[in-house]
Design a protein that fits this description.
304 residues, mainly alpha, 81% helix, 0% strand
Amino acid sequence: MRSLLVLALVGLGAQLVDGSLGMAYGVTSTTLLLAAGTNPAAASATVHLAEIGTTLVSGTAHWRFGNVDWRVVARIGLPGAAGAFAGATFLSWISTEVAGPLMALILLGLGTYVLARFTLAGLPSGNLDKPLRRRFLSPLGLVAGFVDATGGGGWGPVGTPAILASGRMEPRKVIGSIDTSEFLVAVAASIGFLTGLGGAGVDLAWAAALLAGGVVAAPIAAWLVRHLPPRVLGSAVGGLIILTNARTLLNSDWVEAPGAARYPLYAGVYLLWAGALAHSIREHRRESALAEKTAAQVKEGAAA
């Protein structure tokens, strides 16, 4: 009973982060299941079963708060489902020992770009509201879905920074569209796992506990992402991407950094992240005050 309660709390916290920053539910939940001794395929299957419910509730909440672009959902979600089914079906014999660090390195670069762009320049507006092409979204969805199924998480960490970096959508709609399209990925991955595993090793009670926590957090996260300033949200997402993938690289076979080297680096990333967030908050307040002053002057001029 205690383990189910812990899983529910993990599901709540993971969904709160995932729904407001566009990533981390699968990574957080899968990490816990692997630490408990679950084999990778069964861990990913359990998490994806829970995600069918959490993504449905999260997507509905994001839609109600106006955070969803349905064209993006269709263009990235359907290829993502195909990639997730393939990844789930072949997880038992496909090794991600090489692909994992390589993907983490790519995402680390994207995260650094997102953090720097939003922290130093704010929300990119030059390409804002320009359409995202199918030739960009379809391959992205295919890769993100495959990584998500084989790694137990990755739909958000791959999809969110790539779309954010394009500068064509505001952060809340990127996060809402990624979260909503993840429902298709979760369904396809679950079908693939059930086909490949036949349910072996999948703990339905654990999936239900993760689902319960996630369902509670989903509407809160969807409300939160609508009210967070885009500049601050972009810095938060960028920092999370850097932290997550720096940890993956430092613990990979490529690096195998000892604890004495890892922890100072983690501390440095946290300090960088905190500084970026503080700067973005200050700049947001300054820009808001300037916009209010300009609006007041315009109003006074019109009255005169």
